[in-house]
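Please, structure for the following, as tokens.
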Amino acid sequence: MKNLKKDDENGTVAAGNDYDVIVVGAGIAGLTSAAYTAKAGFTTLLCEKSEKAGGLVGSFSRQGFTFDAGIRAFENSGIVFPMLAQLGIDLEFVNNPVVIGIEDVQMTLTGVDSLAAYAAMLSVKFPDNQAEIAAIISEIRKVTGYMEVLYGIENPLFMDLTRDKDYLFKTLLPWLLKYQVNIRKAQKLSEPIENYLRRFTKNQALIDVIIQHFFEKMPTFFALSYFGLYSDYSYPIGGTGRLVTALSDFIAAHQGELALSTEISQIDLHARQVTTRDGRRFGYRELIWCGDMKALYNAVDLGKSGELSQQVREQQQKINENRGGDSILTLYLGVDLAPSYFDQRCGPHCFYTPSKAGLSAIQSEPWQALLADPGLTATKKQTGLEDWIREYLALTTYEISCPVLRDPALAPAGKTGVIVSTLMDYRLVKAIAEAGWYPAFKARCEEQILTVLENSVFPGVTGQVELRFSSTPLTIERLTGNLGGAITGWAFRDEASAGKLPAVNQFRKIAKTIATPLPHIYQAGQWTFSPSGLPVSILTGKLAADGVIKRLEKQGRAGLTGDDSGVRR
């Protein structure tokens, strides 16, 4: 891919490491963008700072057990499967049933029809709140109906509307009418889910059990829709990393290049050139940034930019005033117990709450106050934090995944790999690491989670553990570069301060997610929309690729003259 190109600003000829498109960040958004620009025939370089692609999607193996490093299953949302079909990528998927369990009771979510079983389970645990539970279930049905319209068809961005007239007239146009109505209803439910549920019940434990596996301040329409979306989950044979491998192979087959261990440290906007941490330079005509948004603005060399500097400073201020979204603590286990043991107790994918008391039952002082108390010695602070964490891990909700229950090849015969995750505040773990308690913290968390599981859903598991290790928000930050170890982009804010978010957070404006104030630079990925996940990463990756392709094709047809500043507002 070493070729000659005419520089479109100064008329000189640049030779060597120049590309039509450079994509920074080989998570799913970056892989999607690079796949489409390479497919369109444009020279594409995909740069990834880590040693492997995938970001928060991927699989790895230890001692014969295959674990999923990030996301545990794929929510289609009318995006994942159409994207694969449009690219001609053939992956085998199996259904991914989701179980919800509270103490000794569990049920499987299979769509809206299973909400009656969910209500019955809640009623068993909270018999004095049955009328309130019924009202909450009614709200879930309503919101699920709104969101089903949003995700109910194959996303038109991944369809060839010029060829499929039946889809255009029989599916898309009728859907658009419903979408306009339902999206307005959904967007009115933007307040944090905890605040919304307080309209229906004063029982904080009931609220906790319903929502404590959701992200902090998740908007109501997004949170309640999950009870319908859980039935939309699928799992790729071979593990979640198969999607990463398939997209990487597609890019290579279309003469794109993937540069691993290649961190972009500087962007020269005038020369349209990026510099890597180790001093290599690559030129570009268009750039798509799919890495951490803060890293983008740290890398930009503004130089002589005039008005542009003010726009960039405003965006930098928004980023600095916000923080990354939620992160997780994950325990990985290789267990000498047959898959059937776990199939009976949690199924392939489970959200399990070991105590109906809920996290609001924690009586000890919040961890922030413990760390800030000048009257406590370091030893007392550590003891207080250990007590708080022990209580937290006894009451929190766990996401439990057993890859071997979807694909028998993902663990040694007669054994099971188990992934156990829970939400964990990055700021807490960062403070612990700065105090020098990090190794002890990890060991205590692993021991406490095992104790909780032993005494609840997995009796006898402790003595059968052959392999045990964990990751924390600091691990995620180190491996992915995500600000604050975030797995969800930006922390959600309430409606009053939504304008201060550095990312779009309204579905009706999602097409604007790719815009930046930087000339010839688009953005994509989880950081561009709040709240977000895998489907949004793919969607924004495709939007950015389409924007770049359109721009490059226009340059090819009309020549490189006129106003080509590239600044988008």
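The first helix runs from residue 28 to 39. Residues 5-60+74-91+240-323+487-558 form a domain with the FAD/NAD(P)-binding domain fold (CATH 3.50.50.60).
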